[in-house]
Amino acid sequence: HLLLGAVDAGLGACLFGLFDHEAAVATAFDVPPTHRLVGTVALGRPAADEPGRSAHRPRRPLDEVIHRSRW
Q1: Which residues contact 39 (CB under 8 A, 6 or more apart)?
Q2: What is the spatial distance between Cα 37 and Cα 17, in angstroms, rounded to a whole number?
Q3: Which of 2, 49, 57, 70 has a Cα at 20 to 30 A from 24?
Q4: Are 10 and 25 in contact (CB under 8 A)?
Q5: What is the spatial distance between Cα 16 and Cα 41, in angstroms, rounded to a whole number?
Q6: Using CA atoms, how far apart are residues 22 and 64, in angstroms rounded to an integer?
Q7: Per-residue model confidence (pLDDT) at position 54
Q8: Distance (Å, rounded) from C-alpha 3 to C-alpha 9?
Q9: For 40-62, how does the pLDDT look when each residue is reduced to its tens digit (9 = 90+)?
């Protein structure tokens, strides 16, 4: 709900995993050792509505990116 609420408030939001940075973030925010961090959310004002760098790149065929019942 946090991401949807941010967008509804006109903000940009992105959830991303911590992976190698979990310990550093836990220390910086004094997270108890009984808790595990799985991700963090970046919030901010979105840039002007411009096409991204990949907007002109051709899309891959769906059968190359969608996998059903197999890897």
Answers
A1: 15, 16, 17, 18
A2: 9
A3: 2
A4: no
A5: 6
A6: 33
A7: 80
A8: 10
A9: 999 999 877 777 778 888 988 99
